[in-house]
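Sequence only, no structure available. Ideas?
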Amino acid sequence: MNRNPLIAFCCCFLPLTCIFPQKPVVCETSPQWEAGKYNRVNITVKFPSSSGFARFTQEMPEGIDIVPEAVSQGDFSYNGRQLNVVWLSVPAEGVASFSYLASPDRTMNGTFSLGGKLIQITGGKYRHDYYMDSLAVKVTGTAGNAAVEKPLKPTGEISAQEQSDASRAGSVTQGGEQQVEFRIQIAVSSKPLTPAQVSEKLGLKADEPVKTVRSGNIYKYQAGSFTSYSDALAALKKYNASGFKDAFIVAWKGDKQVPVDDNLKKRQP
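Reply:
I predicted one. C-alpha cells follow.
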C-alpha cells in the first residue's frame, strides 16, 4: 500500500531536475579586492545556442582599471566603465573562458555589485539575454591573495592600422602632452570592409568618416573624431537613436587606444 505513493513521487520528481538549466555565465573572483592592485576575475560562458553572434558585457564602477589577462577567443574591449567581449561566431565547443585583472583606484572603498549579461543573436534577428548571478565585491586597502601585480606590458591597448601624418602632428599639444581623440565604435567584423561597404552595410552618410582598427582577427569600425568628451557623447546619442544601440565611446592618445576614465572626460581640448 505504501509503495505506490513513493513510485508516483519518483516519477514526478525526476523530470523536475531538467527544469532549471545551468547558468550560462559563471564568474569567479575574490569577494574582497585590494585598492591599487590588480585582482583576477575568471569568466566561463556556456552558450545556450551553438549558432549566432554573442556579446558578454559588464558594467564597472568608475575608477576601475581593467587589463585582459587570458582571452583566447573573442574580442575584448573596455572603455572605462563597460567591459565587452564579442564573439562573431560561437566557438565550436560551445564554451569560452577568459580572465582579466581589475584594479580599483586607491581612493575607492566600499562594496559594489559585480554583475554581467550575455547577449546572443540567433537567426540574424532573435535576441536572447542571459544574466549572471551578481557578486558582492568589497574594495579595501588590504586584501588576501586575490591581488596580483600589474602586467609589465598591458595587453588591453590596441594599435591602429595606420595613422596619417596630419594626425601624428596633431597628437601632441604645445605642452608636450598628447591630445586625446574620442571616437564612436559602431561595429565589428571578422573580415575587412572598404569604406563604401561599411557605409552601405551600416546605412551611414557619405560624409561620415569611419576608421578601421584591426585587433587580432577582428576589425573594428569607429566613427567620428572629437577632441572633447561632451561632443563625443552628443554624437553617441545620435548613433543610439539611429539604431546603433551597442555603440560606445572610445579614446585614443596618438596610436594607442586608452580607457575612457574620469580624467579624460573632464579634459578640455
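The mean pLDDT is 75.
Hope that gets you unstuck.
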